[in-house]
Amino acid sequence: MPILNILKAGDVDEFDNLPLFTGEARKRFFCLTKESVKTLSDINAPLDFLNAEDYENILDSKGKIRITLYKILLFIYIVKGIKSGTLSILYSYKYRAFDDYLIPLEYWNANKKELFSRAGLENFSDFTKVEAKRRAKWDEQLEKTNKAIESGKNEYSSIDADGKIKVKTPAKEETLKDRD
Fold first, then answer.
1. Which residues contact 88 (CB under 8 A, 6 or more apart)?
2. pTM, full prediction
């Protein structure tokens, strides 16, 4: 559900899980008007999420708060928080906290062998063995790649006079769609 669909006046229960909205601040957010707010102390809403530049910009030349700008900045920060994963929405499937998507730790610890077996991943249950095997393959491939670069067999890379690797990107092949 897009954030703006749940942000409607009077419907403040959706914000119980948002750290920006706690206690009375979340209710007062919906009551902010030019008439009701004169100074920063009148706003009684979260301000600590704003960076210094945004904080200065919410004040007009007379020192009064620009309510519309505050609300816009709040929405921008909420969206950034949701996209980055630093802010989650409790009742959302798409924007839940990352840990909510994981198997609960207690269940994992009690049923690890069964879960690996059901997934057909028994060979991956011992990380130390898996890591050693993968590291050996990685080292082997890295050595092979480095030898190909040093010998000049790798046509997409070379070493310049300073000893730095230069990567050549092949030209994109033209498709029929590109011609139209």
1. 17, 82, 95, 96, 97, 98, 100
2. 0.42
User: Can you say whether the dihedral through the CA atoms of 116, 117, 119, 123 is positive or negative?
Assistant: positive
pLDDT in tens, 67-122: 888 888 988 988 888 888 788 777 777 777 778 888 999 999 999 999 999 999 99
CA distance 162 to 143: 21
Chain position carrying tokens 């890379």? 157
Q: To the nearest 5 percent, what fractions of the chain are helix, strand and coil?
A: 50, 5, 45
Integer Cα distance of 162 and 124 in angstroms: 42
Nearest Cα to 90, choosing from 2, 18, 11, 19?
18
Helix (H, G, I), strand (E, B) or coil at 166: strand
Q: Say how far apart CA 49 and CA 142 lie, in whole Å.
A: 45
* Tokens matching residue 112: 């690890």
Gap between the Cα atoms of 17 and 87, Å rounded: 9
